[in-house]
Design a protein that fits this description.
The chain is an alpha/beta fold. The protein has helices spanning 31-44, 63-73, 88-98, 117-126, 144-160, 177-184, 193-200, 223-237, 240-269, 277-310, and strands at residues 3-5, 11-13, 16-24, 48-56, 77-82, 103-106, 131-138, 169-176, 204-210, 317-321. GO terms for molecular function: glycosyltransferase activity.
């Protein structure tokens, strides 16, 4: 805890700083309302200083200029403007990199995560927890497809991953400075933030909350991004797909061996060995399919290794606004 020597020699406690990280991508329709709700939230926070870090993830609408207007008027608002769209997880990472708070809250711009819940998170943090993650009890207003795929994804991920990753939990969470520092020391390029936070450890606790509907606008996670996100989650937290590939290969090889014995048997002991075209086709196609799947899985991992060794910065920042210190324009 930061302490400052007061003039009269007594030690006074400087209020602790809470950083809120809000990734925004084409959110011009919701920003004003988000600001209003966050403003109300801040007004109720009497014993904490606050900084609001908006990360504009290369929006193509007026999001950036709206954010800048707010930042010019309010010293608590800071803006990180990316040079292009780098994706939600990278935007969150940039926010964590830039945050100075004793505690850091990740929250979506579309008000699906109610800011009021953060009060309860802060309480838990004061009780000594390092991570307070919001678990969704209800998700109204989402398509049945999104609900069922999300449900299946969290369960599959948990089964495959070596680190237990909480079910039905998004990035809406509070983390302590220690956890943020640990995250900042993890250089991986394929970032699956909620999994990384689980991996870090410390004292973590779930906080059930009712996820609201998006205030306005549409989801910025189309199916393509959802699939990429899910693949990142599974491949960066599990090598089980590789074991699965080995298993599939072994099963196929055993079947093939049985086929070979059978074919030889027919050839040596019977006269019907010209027949069996169907069996031949099945064997060829089956083996071909299994091999392609396994090569594909290998390829996914190799692609990720390639991505890591290139060692490019995680993101490129076009501009910072409202920060008191000079910030680097590229990550690490
Ligand atoms: N977002 C982002 N970059 C992207 C996609 C989304 O920064 O490429 C932000 C978006 O503005 C929002 C949050 O990430 O604040 C969650 O996105 P969204 O609400 O569209 O996802 P959903 O809630 O539908 O899963
Ligand atoms: Mg949303």
């Amino acid at each position: 805890m930061k302490r400052e020597a007061a003039v009269d020699g007594e030690v006074t406690r400087k209020p602790r700083l809470l950083s809120m990280v809000i990734p925004c991508y084409n959110e011009e329709e919701v920003i004003h309302e988000t600001m209003r709700r966050l403003g109300d939230f801040c007004a109720q926070l009497t014993d904490l200083d606050i900084e609001l870090i908006f990360v504009d993830d290369g929006s193509r609408d007026r999001t950036r200029s709206i954010l800048k207007e707010y930042a010019n008027r309010d010293a608590r608002i800071r803006v990180i403007g990316f040079a292009r769209n780098f994706g939600h997880q990278i935007a969150v990472t940039a926010g964590i990199d830039a945050a100075h708070g004793d505690a850091i809250v990740l929250i979506d711009a579309d008000l699906q995560d109610p800011p009021e819940v953060v009060h309860q998170m802060i309480e838990k943090w004061r009780e000594g927890y390092d991570v307070v993650y919001g678990t969704r009890t209800e998700r109204p207003g989402e398509s049945r497809f999104k609900l069922s795929t999300a449900r299946a994804f969290y369960r599959l991920l948990n089964r495959l991953s070596n680190v237990p990753i909480p079910l039905d939990t998004g990035d809406f969470r509070l983390m302590s400075r220690n956890v943020a520092d640990a995250l900042r020391s993890m250089p991986e390029r394929d970032r699956f933030v909620r999994g990384m936070v689980s991996w870090v450890g410390f004292r973590q606790i779930a906080l059930p909350y009712k996820r609201a509907e998006r205030f306005a606008g549409t989801s910025k996670y189309p199916l393509r991004k959802m699939i990429r996100f899910a693949t990142d989650g599974i491949l960066s937290f599990s090598t089980k797909p590789l074991q699965l590939a080995v298993g599939l290969g072994m099963a196929a090889a055993s079947l093939a061996l049985a086929g070979i014995v059978y074919a030889l048997f027919l050839r040596i002991f019977t006269s019907i060995w010209v027949e069996g075209w169907t069996a031949l086709m099945i064997a060829v196609l089956f083996l071909g399919g299994v091999q392609l799947i396994c090569v594909g899985i290998l390829g996914e991992y190799i692609g990720r290794i390639y991505n890591e060794v290139k060692n490019r910065p995680l993101y490129v920042v076009d501009e910072y606004l409202g920060f008191e210190v000079d910030m680097p324009h590229m990550s690490r």
